[in-house]
Design brief:
377 residues; alpha+beta; Methane Monooxygenase Hydroxylase, Chain G, domain 1; 6-stranded antiparallel β-sheet; two-stranded antiparallel ribbon; 10 helices; 10 strands
């Protein structure tokens, strides 16, 4: 590809990215081609699938840049919880929602196709918003349903990965082959990606918990009704967020433990493969040493096969003697080589004989200072 073609390709990619960043519409979560909004009573209202960015900003008093985090056409890998003046924007895993004091708007999630998970979440959200007997504000019940769906999704994926990795580790105990080792590498990458997602969710919750201003601003119902609150009176919301934060932390810790087991298994498998490789190399060396011993014995026999007179042809025991000598030389050479190989292969953390080979040098005393007329020198 020439430089001109590369510049044209870069310009096309840049133009496509800029167009994606300048969208004017937002797509709501679709169930049968309609969007989803829940009112103050928890009832579902179906509306058209797209909204103008300007209409959403004017209706909910939001900034255009705030909508980027819940835009359905832009993939956001980092979970965020944005607290604004009259709304809370949540973008965590498969959920993108706008929570207000009397309304919940669900947006379509980028690349999400698990309709069962969405249906369960929507059912629980509707049921929780209609249950007013709990005494919790409307926005807290909505946030609880959202975080519960996120936690359920993480737990389900954790169980799935745990079963995959556990079954593969059990198979590796019986047999090690290339396919299983390749699957272990694939599962390890998937586990690391899941652990990172769980940690990002935990960091998003911890970030909100560390800001008293954000916690106070999340009391949307009290703010709408004009109820004055102390900035540090947010124990109810803090307990709610801490509960889910601890649950996500446990999932992340379990993922770390499984990752540690996978790494230990990989190291053990590598050690076993190295040991087998060393055993094959040792076998090859033993065969070579045996061949060298046989060759040494054959050298002696070859000296008498050159049809030269050695005056030993007429000796009655010459054949027996030379055969015995050749066999003895061959056995001795092979034994010496195998013994040396065994000494080289012997591995230890310390070698006590090494210190005995060092010569002990006598200490040479320093010359005494001599006294002169001017003093000691």
């Amino acid at each position: 590809m020439s430089d001109t073609q590369e510049e044209i390709a870069k310009a096309a990619i840049l133009e496509k990215v800029m167009k994606g960043r300048q969208l004017t519409d937002l797509m709501l979560r679709s169930y049968g081609g309609t969007g989803t909004i829940l009112d103050h009573a928890g009832n579902i209202k179906s509306i058209s699938g797209q909204f103008k960015r300007s209409d959403l900003c004017n209706e909910h008093r939001l900034n255009p840049r705030d909508l980027r985090k819940i835009d359905s056409r832009i993939p956001n890998l980092v979970p965020t919880i944005l607290i604004r003046k009259g709304a809370v924007l949540i973008n965590i895993l498969h959920i993108r929602a706008l929570v207000k004091a009397d309304t919940v708007v669900l947006f379509d999630s980028y690349g999400s196709n698990d309709s069962r998970l969405h249906s369960v979440f929507l059912y629980h959200l509707e049921h929780n918003l209609k249950a007013r007997g709990s005494g919790a504000p409307y926005e807290f019940r909505a946030i609880e349903s959202i975080l519960l769906s996120v936690l359920s999704a993480l737990e389900a994926e954790m169980v799935f990965i745990r079963n995959l990795v556990g079954g593969l580790l059990a198979e590796l105990e019986d047999d090690i082959n290339h396919d299983k080792f390749k699957r272990l590498l694939h599962y390890s990458r998937r586990l690391v990606a899941f652990k990172n997602r769980a940690k990002l969710v935990q960091e998003a919750l911890e970030e909100v918990l560390e800001q008293d201003d954000d916690l106070d601003a999340m009391y949307l119902t009290d703010k709408k009704n004009g109820v004055l609150r102390d900035m540090h009176e947010h124990e109810e919301l803090e307990v709610l967020l801490e509960f889910f934060s601890k649950q996500v932390e446990e999932i992340a810790n379990e993922a770390e433990n499984i990752e540690a087991n996978v790494q230990s298994t990989q190291e053990i498998v590598e050690l076993i493969l190295d040991s087998n490789r060393n055993a094959l190399l040792a076998l090859d060396l033993k065969v070579s040493i045996g061949t060298m011993g046989i060759g040494t014995g054959a050298l002696i026999a070859g000296l008498f096969g050159m049809n030269l007179k050695s005056h030993m042809e007429e000796m009655p025991y010459a054949f027996m003697a030379m055969s015995t000598l050749s066999s003895a030389v061959a056995l001795f050479v092979a034994w010496a080589g195998l013994r040396r190989l065994a000494q080289i292969r012997k591995v230890g953390l310390s070698n006590p004989k090494r210190g005995q080979d060092l010569e002990v040098r006598p200490r040479i005393p320093l010359p005494l200072r001599r006294r002169s007329s001017n003093g000691w020198s």
